[in-house]
Amino acid sequence: MKVNEIMRLRPLALVCGLALFFAATPMVFAQQTPAKNTIKPTLKIQSVPNGAKVKFRGVVMSRDADTFTMRDRNRTDYEVLLTGATSVKSEGSLLRLGIGKKYAMADILRGLIIEVEGRGNSQGQLVADKVRFRESDLRAAITTDTRVNPVEENQERLSGQMDELATIAAEARNEVRQANERITSLDDYDVQETATVNFSLNSAVLSPDAKRQLDALAQKALNAKAYMVEVSGHADSTGSDAKNFVLSQRRAESVIQYLAVTHKIPVRRFVTPMGYGKTEAVADNKTASGRAQNRRVEVKVLLNRGMSQGASTPAAAKQ
Question: Which of 18, 144, 188, 270 has a CA 20 to 30 Å removed from the CA of 260?
């Protein structure tokens, strides 16, 4: 090709090259645009040797029905398994004597500073024998978990300050003082599901209809996380007060036995059953229909308000 022809084609090649450059530029910049930061911290679970007896102090980072993940002072994460034998208590002034207030496993919240003692299992989990915490730290965890900001933001704040647990506790206690109006009780639960089953005169035997009602309630309870089941027995005015108290207690225990045996609801999920005798009638004991309504057991599936914050639940009454 002649030199003059090459000179004529050079501007055209330059224009084409620039066009390709600018066409590719948005794609390059789009690829370099930083992805949106995710707030949820990355957990790298450290296995606990099988059979090894260990004790850790750290912060609860995530929570499931029977397990939770905690992070210690060295920013090491462990998965802790709760069982029916796990003792959950607060650290009281008489801690050296083993005296402390008992708490439900549902009270172990994200952000709670705890001490866990137990042994490793074959899955690398720490099977907890004891879980201990200060009541002030529990109030702080409840406040942190019920803030307007997303839970993931709370986790990021906690993750970034794990080196100084005391700093976290001090900040959380300040939040408690600022949010006292929202905290009415450490035992604040919402009712998620209810059922009322009735009994024949002088009987604590569940009828087929009563079992169907309990079957429906159990299915909903098993789909929930960190739930408790409250069972209260009642009687009509027939017979003596002493007899009615015993009968109402037997009715409550009959319901618990059915739910535990038939639907495998762990016994630790049940609040201690109570028989109220005839003291809490819902209908007139002077009529047959009223007495039939009073021969009942009321069952409530409860969710800890700190654990269920932000979840979609039916309108509930305070317990």
Answer: 188
